[in-house]
Amino acid sequence: MFHLANRELSVDVLDPADRIDATRQGTRYCWGGYIWQIHDARFGPLLRGPEWPNPAPLAFNGQGLPESFRHRTRDGQPLTWQGDRGVALGAGALSADTAGNITLTAPCAWTVTPAADALGFHTRHTAAGFSYALERRLELRDRTVTSSTRLTNLGGSPLVLQWFAHPFWALTAGRAHVTLPAGTTMAENPGFALAAGGAFTFQRPFVAPTDDQFALLALPPGRALALALDHPQLARVSFATSFVPTECPVWANAHTLSIEPYLALHLAAGETRAWHVRHGFEAR
To answer: Using CA atoms, how far apart are residues 219 and 263, in angstroms rounded to an integer?
Structure first.
């Protein structure tokens, strides 16, 4: 595991080449730059996950601040697949059996470049007819963590996929209060409520890991996402994207809340796309 630290925060980052860390990563999340936990010097761990406080959650569930390149859409349509062979960008080559079970057959190799206040991750990978270069950079400044991504299509055909951030935030007394951009809307559901001004709340506490709720947020068009939410130890947590999300699910269970901005990617041969997300942890 790698670490970034200053006087107030320390960041635990999984090592793509470490045998133990590899068991935590699976096929869902990008291996390079996977933030596993952030610790406050006074309050301890700040992030959760669906199985919190299990120290060894299932790789699919994870914890912390993972990010993902979807190799299939949420309804199962293939994105980065050729028949039964696929690639999870940033994780590795995949195979699927006749029952639809997906296996990581070979992880991609990462080069890691540590610096005083940053970690750089780089991979060039070819699998299932796709070829790409992926750079990830994590930077810690004061109480802010910035996660940056740069993706280049090295293949001869378009690279079409989806990326999303999947932050797992801590609940306060089993609930969360989030300030979303004014004008955000959401279909009625039994778990969440959203006021016209952007105040997002739980309608009820969730009582078990399997007691959960999923919904889609309709964000104001043409604007990057910026939000703030409460935290049991901190004044607030903030989160912002450098891009306009193409869609934005929200999900919670008894342990955590996640708001997940998606970015649809369609890269022509040789094309590069870069973006970042920023996490702030404001002390009381």
So the answer is: 13
The 3-state DSSP class for residue 158 equals coil
Which of 232, 227, 203, 231 is closest to 215 using CA atoms? 203
Residue with tokens 């004061």: 142
**Angle at the Cα of 249 (from 141 to 195), degrees rounded to 5?**
90
**What's the confidence (pLDDT) of residue 137?**
98
Residue 5, beta-bridge partner list: 10
Domain boundaries, the chain: 2-282
Best CATH choice for the domain 2-282 from the list 3.30.43.10, 2.60.120.380, 1.10.3720.10, 2.70.98.10: 2.70.98.10
Residue 80 to residue 25: CA distance in whole angstroms:
19
- In terms of C-beta distances under 8 Å and separation of at least 24 residues, what long-range contacts does 266-269 make, across chains too? 266/158, 266/159, 266/160, 267/151, 267/152, 267/153, 267/158, 267/159, 267/160, 268/153, 268/158, 269/153, 269/155, 269/156, 269/157, 269/158
Q: Are 142 and 169 in contact (CB under 8 A)?
A: no
pLDDT grade, residue 116 (50/70/90)?
confident
pLDDT category at 256 given cuts 50, 70, 90 is very high
The token duo for 193 is 């409520």
Write the single-letter amino acid at 108. C
